[in-house]
Design brief:
The chain is an alpha/beta fold. The protein folds into three domains: 256 residues, Rossmann fold; 119 residues; 47 residues. Helices cover 46% and strands 16% of the residues. The strands form six sheets. It has a four-stranded parallel β-sheet, sandwiched between helices. A four-stranded antiparallel β-sheet has the order 7-8-9-10. β15 and β16 form a beta hairpin. α9 crosses α10, α11 runs parallel beside α13 and α12 packs antiparallel against α13. The site of adenosine monophosphate (AMP) has 18 residues, from α1 and β11.
Length: 474
């Protein structure tokens, strides 16, 4: 099936043409592990996963690389100044940078697993690639793209790169006008950026390395260039990240790579829109208060519902987060699961190949067309309602949708079915019977008391037109 994606480089939805047939190499800017991931970061990670699953469903062999930033990401990205986020996080948590990197990476992976995000093929860390980052800077130095700011570091001279800013459609001057920062006067151009920062004389950094220029640490943008090229080759198909990355981070990655490997370094740039709050502000960690996966778990909302809510939107539109929106997505999700429970209970018939193939393509087409996941869910809902499709075929298609969108419908339905088909212990059965009798004789106090006892024993009694039903609590 023809895959189409919006390419930020051309600002058009384009047919996807892989460098190697049936193979896609893609690189995603990963988390900076100085704090818990917030729901916005995780939205971006879900979109990476949806992109990957779409390629897999189209029969591609996928090589996905996502880095872990554990050094050199400064709080003021525009001006290469401020604190290193890792050092800042370590001071906040009273731990070493190495300890917080491990802690928050584990937390991030836990969140990713709960969102059913497939692990990337490779997850390199910036600190494992210092040698390669130094080599990249040396190559740029040989090619004449660098200069030193004494006492500060080695900088990239953006005026030397004719295409600077192509990703945001801007020229160098456009970037200047768009930037909203106080400038480092010593830079030759406002858009110049640090390749290597010297360790400050008065502060002992926990992470620093020797280099031909002096002890220090690499600028944030170098890591993604070296890790992607080392693992995916000098040229690769797709580079992804949140929409905030295109103006500075990805623009600077291109400026560092194309003088060395030629143009275009990456064929498709895919940017995911922000998760925002009710007033439209980007969810971000720098504001101090932010919502992570724990806020969702604390409300007893299954993390997969957060994924479902993301799938209901489109990656090029911002999503405004609220718990109300999440709760109503939860109702929609449970309605689908309920239908799958019924399919599991009555998997009648044989899979009809023709019917399967036709619905398979109807579901996959919108996702392959620039990841219109919501449209494919609408088709899927139509399938569930269609009485002409037998249950065995429907169930096979639910499994396909689970592979494509990662929503674990079958897994959740199976859990419910296991609970529903458990044999009810005699004493619970007796209590339910007594409650029924109490209700008949209008002794509601006793009926309520019995309901509470049944509840405390881990069962829910539900009234039905034929009497009552007992279901094991999850
Ligand atoms: P960070 O951990 O800050 O390095 O960010 C990890 C990823 O999350 C990057 O691709 C960011 O662009 C992305 N990101 C940051 N904030 C948001 C947000 N509010 N909504 C969606 N993605 C975001
Ligand atoms: Zn990056």
């Amino acid at each position: 099936m023809q895959i189409r994606l919006f390419n930020a480089l051309t600002r058009k939805v384009e047919d996807f043409v892989p460098i190697i047939p049936n193979h896609v190499g893609f690189y995603s800017c990963g988390p900076t592990v100085y704090h818990y991931a917030h729901l916005g970061n995780l939205r971006t990670m879900v979109h990476n996963d949806l992109l990957k699953r779409m390629f897999l469903a189209n029969g591609y062999d996928v090589h996905h690389v996502m880095n872990i930033t554990d050094v050199g990401h400064l709080t003021n990205e525009d001006n290469d100044s401020g604190e290193d986020k890792m050092e800042k996080g370590a001071a906040r948590d009273h731990k070493s940078v190495w300890d917080i990197a491990k802690f928050y990476l584990d937390e991030f992976l836990h969140d990713s697993d709960d969102l059913n995000i497939m692990r990337p093929t490779d997850m390199p860390r910036a600190t494992e690639y210092i040698k390669e980052q130094i080599e990249l800077i040396q190559k740029l130095e040989e090619l004449g793209y660098t200069y030193e700011i004494p006492g500060d570091g080695i900088y990239y001279d953006t005026s030397k790169f004719a295409d600077y800013g192509a990703l945001t459609g801007g020229s160098l001057s456009g970037q200047r006008a768009g930037a909203r920062v106080e400038y480092n006067d010593a830079k030759r151009n406002p858009t110049d950026f640090a390749l290597w920062k010297y360790s400050p004389k008065d502060v002992q950094r926990q992470m620093e390395w020797d280099s031909p220029w002096g002890v220090g640490f690499p600028g944030w943008h170098t890591e993604c260039c070296v890790m992607s090229m080392k693992l995916l080759g000098a040229h690769f198909d797709i580079h992804t990240g949140g929409e905030d990355l295109s103006r500075v981070h990805h623009t600077n990655e291109i400026a560092q790579s194309e003088p060395i490997v030629g143009k275009p370094w990456v064929h498709y740039w895919v940017h995911f829109s922000f998760l925002v709050d009710k007033s439209g502000d980007k969810m971000s960690k720098s504001k101090g208060e932010f919502l992570g996966m724990n806020a969702v778990r604390d409300r007893n909302i299954d993390p997969i519902v957060y994924r479902y809510w993301i799938v209901l939107g489109h990656y090029q539109s911002q999503l405004a987060f609220s718990f109300d929106a999440l709760e109503s997505a939860g109702t929609g999700y449970n309605n689908i699961v309920r239908k799958v429970v019924d399919l599991l209970a009555n998997p009648d018939g044989e899979i009809d190949e023709n019917v399967y193939n036709s619905w398979h393509d109807k579901i996959l087409t919108p996702v392959s067309d620039n990841l219109k996941t919501a449209e494919s869910l609408v088709v899927f809902q139509d399938l569930l309602k269609d009485k002409s499709v037998n249950n065995a075929t429907k169930l096979a298609l639910v499994k396909f949708v689970d592979d494509l969108l990662g929503l674990e419908f079958v897994q959740h339905a199976q859990k419910i079915r296991e609970l529903e088909t458990l044999t009810v212990p005699d004493e619970i059965q007796e209590m339910a019977q007594k409650r029924m009798e109490a209700k008949k004789s209008r002794d509601f106090a006793t009926a309520d008391e019995l309901r509470n006892q049944i509840d405390s024993a881990g069962w829910t009694v539900m009234d039905t037109p034929d009497g009552y039903k007992l279901v094991k609590k999850q």
